[in-house]
Specification:
The complex is a heterodimer of chains A (291) and B (794). Chain A is α+β, with helices and mostly antiparallel strands and 291 residues long. Chain A folds into three domains: 7-53, 2-Layer Sandwich (Uridine Diphospho-n-acetylenolpyruvylglucosamine Reductase, domain 2); 63-173, Uridine Diphospho-n-acetylenolpyruvylglucosamine Reductase, domain 3, CATH 3.30.465.10; 179-290, Enolase-like, domain 1 (2-Layer Sandwich). Chain A has helices at residues 14-24, 37-42, 79-83, 86-91, 93-98, 105-110, 113-119, 125-132, 150-153, 228-232, 241-254, 265-290, and strands spanning 7-9, 28-31, 50-53, 63-65, 71-74, 136-141, 144-149, 154-156, 159-160, 167-173, 179-187, 197-206, 209-218, 225-226. In chain A, strand 4 and strand 5 (71-74) form a beta hairpin. The longest helix of chain A is centred in the C-terminal third of the chain and has 26 residues, at 265-290. The radius of gyration of chain A is 19 Å and the shape is globular. The termini of chain A are far apart. In chain B, helix 14 (508-520) links the parallel strand 24 (495-499) and strand 25 (527-531). Chain B folds into three domains: 21-28 and 483-626, Aldehyde oxidase/xanthine dehydrogenase, molybdopterin binding domain (Aldehyde Oxidoreductase, domain 4); 32-134 and 201-249 and 256-289, Aldehyde Oxidoreductase, domain 3 (Alpha-Beta Complex); 370-466 and 632-780, Aldehyde Oxidoreductase, domain 4. In chain B, helix 10 runs parallel beside helix 18 (740-756) and helix 14 (508-520) packs parallel to helix 15. Chain B has 19 helices and 34 strands. In chain B, the strands form ten sheets. Chain B has a seven-stranded mixed beta sheet with strand order 3-7-1-14-11-12-13, sandwiched between helices. Chain B has a five-stranded mixed beta sheet with strand order 9-17-16-15-10, with helices on both faces. Chain B has a four-stranded mixed beta sheet with strand order 20-30-31-34. The chains are: A alpha+beta (291), B alpha+beta (794).
Chain lengths: 291, 794
């Protein structure tokens, strides 16, 4: 690995880190898990002048639930922490389904959910999951903290809404109003490959009715796709075969895939349909049994 | 006293743990990049971003300005020393650094030698090259089009992009067989371009010492002696002043057979700077510029009698060799041993025509874990056999059995003229069918179909020619393909063994010692095995094409027997009897008439240095050069069962049964490791692996995110079985095995997936069988052919 020359700092407080970013004047990058940034630097696709390593910052390695059920994921919470999380297994099925499907075990040991959101790769898993769940990101800058809804935070391919002197410190998943259900499915040619296509589905049910739904798509557009229209048809209805097919159709239509060596656009669209249908059918079966 | 227990001393058949793993798993291997010489400089290569372009100018001035830069080389500078071009292993030439134009993306254009690799990389980025783009050719069809641009305008007598037009077999006899046929089965196939992708990329450290005129080169090479000869010829240096050292290699798979431009540049750079110069290739450099595998198109035809007998075979291959014809192969043949196809079947006649084309793709065409294109030969064979069985409506196992060469038909002349000498093909098939539960699976498959599930079973059976040469027919650039071993037994009965082969993961350090143990009764742990240093190892052709055990391994047995013959003289002396009265059992000579009176091999060794009889040369050492009488012919039967998800095209391997007959197994555990590794590479090629190019010649597959190696997650489980038919001419009855599973495996997986979707009428999906290709076949009900394209937006 022979990157261009860069400076490296490892601050011990968020304030210090923000100060370094300010001084970096747009040429500094935050290093958390490094699982996307380091390969880019290695290949010299990215040549930041300064790396601000936040791994020594205290108190960011958490994921926890507030008393009301809001889930908070700190900037240094690793994918592997989420994969092994009893909290998610118990309370947040869409995240629990996605965690073990992120990249490969080596990446999961270092990489972070918040870092994945910041990287804003259209093929990143967490942006789709957090979009389906209607989450947001907390950013800290010189002027303090602000909250950015995920749909605004990820604002293009490999682009996020952070100012150059802001650090994303936390991702927040709002407390569910009903019983949370859902899942995440993706096709990859091999573990660790970028997704050929993926779909995150998050619903909340009350009785046998859907009270809230979110569907977001991975790897089938220039950015993470929020298939809001597909999700909306589910709300207020029980998860029957007909409405599931309708949602799957709308999700497939919302996809904007391009043909590449991972598959044709037609195939990727079909996968979106299949995945949304499979997740909702499984959720529907479970809800029916519970009800 | 009773004879030694051979297994206990780590002899033949012992499942001895690999001694080399002791250092490898502790991170104590000594790979090229671990070697640091005093005053060493670092080299970095600037590669062409374009696949075909004229070079108008190269401006290196900004690179020279960077502090720490010691040397910048361009093709022009190489040309002044007559080193801009070098010979390939197939009698072509290859650019070391481009002078006139670049002919593939990733071609070497300039290089920088600097105090550290960071500076060298920075300086490469500071070199300005003015390119004038030219039309690009990325496949054989484009290469032979009327208006195709001429890629090799550097060559005289090269009016087009065709490298060779070659044939082998009996054209007229085959034509007659087709006239008599009840049915002709035809198929078009493509074996996509792949890459050996050893975990360690290539590299070299050249160290020219002006005071002694000695050139030492540490180099990632599978064939150090061939490289020494090549360097002597290319650089016009005296051969005895060149020392090639191949240290621990992190895999090779054929990729480390050729001589690469980077090696040559590092040597020249060391001569010019009078400092050691290290070149370590990065992953992208390895994948886009070094020896690839395959990339061959087939038109296959089979003449069949109604009862299932194969009457004749016609094959035509079009091979894409890239910009320079650099195949590593015996010089007599143009498309390697492609004509070893159908060796396990009793077929009266066959004819093969083969064309090779230049394209604007990386050169090389190495035998990626195979004996010179036999991977393509056996894949084509087993896909043609499967298609023929389907066309006849015959059971795939029975069709094979009907056409196998029978056990009592050896020696057997194959339809293309090879001589096979041994095998029990029917028995291997039986073992495989029983292990997989063939009849039960066919029932299960029918049951599953009723519930909308798609199960399939695929068979691949083949014998392949491993262990080139003999020297009559096999040479590389005129150097005959024999091999060698040298054994020195020290006075305490410990020994050092050196061979002309070069292990790169095959486990020679373990298995060669086991052959010595078998022949001499020395415990294997008392034998140190050393390879790869041309100043100390005897001359040999190196390790590739599964030739080590058939050739160098035979030399190890033969040199051990020479040592034993001398030890017998020492034993007779010690026992005070005549040599004729001495008998041998493992590890010990004894008096025939008084078996209790004996001496151990170790006592003989001590006597060789301390108590030798008058007239006997002191010492206990020798060497052997072994020229095999024939190739060895292992047989394999691979059977895969799969389930295909009709909604996504995803397929999972349910079972993979491998029955290998590689003759006598020296170390069964090492053999099994080779088979499992080979099956994994087979699975990779069948399921996910390919290197492709877009219309501009941009390589898709230039890193491990695009060129996929299966992980433990995807790799299926394997069930291994064995049949043993000793090789009749090999001194210990062994046959090659390192590559069988890579060669025979892919067709089993592909046949299984196609079997699962047979009701669609689809006859072929070319590899890799990525889910989207399988889904397309199922839903569109048509064959999916050709290299996976880099698709354009819909």
């Amino acid at each position: 690995m022979y990157p261009s020359r860069f400076r490296y700092e490892a601050p011990h407080s968020i304030e210090e880190a923000v100060g370094l970013l300010q001084a970096g004047d747009g040429e500094a990058k935050v290093l958390a898990g490094g699982q996307s940034l380091v390969p880019l630097i290695k290949l010299r696709f990215a040549s930041p002048e300064l790396l601000v390593d936040i791994n020594d910052l205290p108190g960011l390695a958490y994921h926890r639930a507030d008393p009301d059920g809001t889930i908070r994921v700190g900037a240094l919470c690793r994918h592997a922490d989420l994969e092994g999380s009893a909290l998610l297994a118990d309370r947040q099925p869409t995240m629990a389904a996605a965690a073990p499907m992120v990249a490969d075990p080596i990446v999961r040991n270092r990489g972070t959910l918040v870092g994945s959101l910041c990287h804003a790769d259209p093929q990143g898993d967490w942006a789709a999951v957090v979009t389906a769940l209607g989450g947001h990101v907390v950013a800290q800058g010189p002027g303090g903290r602000r909250t950015i809804p995920i749909g605004k935070f990820v604002n293009g391919p490999f682009q996020n809404a952070l100012a150059y002197d802001e650090i994303a410190v936390e991702a927040v998943i709002p407390a569910p109003g009903g019983t949370p259900a859902g899942g995440y499915l993706k096709l990859e040619r091999r573990v660790g490959d970028f997704a050929t296509a993926g779909a995150a589905v998050a619903v909340e049910t009350s009785g046998d009715l859907v009270t809230r739904a979110g569907i977001a798509l991975t790897g089938v557009g220039g950015s993470t796709i929020d298939a809001a229209e597909a999700a909306q048809v589910l709300v207020g209805r029980p998860l029957g075969a007909e409405v599931i097919a309708e949602a799957a159709d709308l999700a497939a239509r919302a996809a904007q895939p391009k043909s590449d060596h991972r598959g044709s656009a037609k195939y990727k669209r079909h996968l979106v349909h299949t995945f949304v249908e499979r997740i909702l059918t499984r959720v529907g079966d479970t809800t029916e049994r519970a009800a | 006293m009773t004879a030694l227990d051979e297994i206990k001393i780590g002899g033949m058949g012992a499942r001895r743990r690999r001694v080399e793993d002791n250092r490898f798993i502790r991170g104590r291997g000594n790979y090229i990049d671990d070697i640091v010489l005093p005053g060493m400089l670092h080299m970095e290569i600037l590669r062409s971003p374009l696949a075909h372009a004229r070079i108008n100018s190269i401006d290196t001035s900004k690179a020279w300005d960077i502090p720490g830069v010691r040397l910048v080389l361009t093709g022009e500078m190489m040309a002044t020393r007559n080193l801009a071009w070098m010979p390939t292993l197939s009698y072509d030439t290859q650019a070391v650094l481009a002078t006139d134009k670049v002919r593939f993306q990733g071609q070497e254009v300039a290089c920088v030698i600097a105090d550290d690799p960071y500076i060298a990389k920075d300086a490469c980025e500071a070199i300005v090259v003015d390119y004038e783009p030219l039309p690009v050719i990325v496949n054989p069809t484009q290469a032979t089009a009327d208006d195709a641009p001429l890629i090799r305008d550097d060559k005289e007598n090269q009016p087009d992009n065709v490298i060779y037009d070659w044939e082998v077999g009996d054209r007229a006899g085959t034509d007659q067989a087709f006239e008599r046929a009840d049915l002709v089965s035809t198929i078009q196939l493509h074996y996509p371009r792949s890459h050996p992708a050893p975990l360690e990329c290539c590299g070299s450290i050249a160290d020219f010492d002006r005071s002694t005129s000695k050139l030492t080169v540490y180099m990632t090479t599978q064939a150090p002696h061939i490289v020494r000869a090549a360097v002597a010829l290319i650089a016009e240096l005296p051969e005895h002043m060149i020392r090639i050292i191949s240290p621990d290699l992190g895999g090779g798979f054929g990729n480390k057979v050729p001589v690469y431009p980077g090696y040559v540049m590092s040597i020249l750079a060391s001569i010019l700077t009078e400092r050691p110069v290290k070149w370590i290739e990065d992953r992208t450099g390895n994948l886009i510029s070094t020896g690839f595998g395959r990339d061959v198109y087939l038109q296959g035809e089979m003449a069949l009698r109604r009862d299932g007998k194969i009457l004749g075979v016609r094959m035509h291959t079009d091979a894409d060799h890239g910009a320079f014809f650099g195949d590593a192969q015996p010089s007599k043949f143009k498309i390697g041993l492609m004509h070893s196809a159908f060796a396990c079947y009793d077929i009266p006649t066959a004819h093969l025509t083969a064309r090779g084309m230049y394209t604007n793709k990386a050169p090389g065409g190495v035998a990626y874990r195979c004996s010179f294109r036999v991977t393509e030969a056996m894949f084509f064979q087993e896909r043609m056999v499967q298609a023929a069985a389907d066309d006849l409506g015959m059971d795939q196992a029975e069709f094979r059995r009907l056409n196998f060469v029978r056990d009592d038909d050896f020696p057997h002349r194959t339809p293309f003229g090879f001589l096979t000498d041994s095998g029990q093909y029917g028995k291997c098939l039986d073992v495989g069918l029983k292990a997989v539960g063939y009849q039960d699976f066919l029932k299960q498959k029918e049951e599953a179909k009723k519930r909308g599930r798609l199960l399939g079973i695929g068979i691949s059976t083949m014998t392949e020619p491993l262990g080139a040469g003999n020297s009559r027919e096999y040479d590389i650039l005129g150097i005959k393909m024999f091999d060698s071993a040298e054994l020195r037994v020290h006075m305490t009965g410990k020994a050092i063994l050196r061979t002309g082969a070069k292990t790169q993961g095959q486990g020679h350090e373990t298995t060669w010692a086991q052959i010595v143990a078998h022949e001499l009764g020395l415990p294997a742990e008392d034998v140190l095995v050393e390879e790869g240093d041309t100043d100390t190892a005897p001359f040999g052709m190196g390790t590739y094409a599964s030739r080590s055990t058939p050739v160098a391994g035979a030399a190890v047995a033969m040199v051990s027997r020479k040592i034993r013959a001398k030890a017998r003289k020492l034993a007779a002396h010690l026992l005070e009897v005549s040599e004729e009265d001495v008998d041998w059992e493992l590890g010990r000579f004894y008096v025939r008439s008084a078996p209790d009176r004996g001496v151990t091999i170790q006592e003989c060794a001590m006597a060789a240095y301390s108590n030798m009889p008058d007239g006997l040369e002191p010492g206990l050492e020798g060497n052997a050069y072994y020229d095999p009488p024939n190739l060895t012919w292992p047989f394999a039967c691979y059977i895969a069962t799969v389930e295909v998800d009709p909604e996504t095209g995803v397929w999972d391997v349910l079972n993979m049964v491998a029955v290998d007959d590689c003759g006598v197994r020296i170390n069964p555990m090492v053999v099994e490791g080779q088979i499992m590794g080979g099956l994994t590479e087979a699975y990779a090629m069948a399921s996910m692996q390919f290197i492709t190019f877009d219309a501009e010649g941009n390589c898709v597959g230039s890193n491990f995110m695009d060129y996929l190696l299966p992980t433990a997650w995807e790799t299926p489980g394997y069930e291994l079985h064995e049949v043993v038919t000793p090789c009749p001419h090999h001194p210990i009855g062994a046959k090659g095995i390192g590559e069988c599973a890579t060669v025979g495996g892919p067709a089993a997986f592909v046949n299984a997936v196609l079997d699962a979707i047979k009701d669609t009428g689809v006859r072929n999906i070319d590899m890799p069988l990525l889910p989207d290709r399988v889904y397309e076949a199922i839903t569109e009900r048509h064959d999916v052919s050709g290299a996976p394209p880099v698709k354009v937006d819909d």
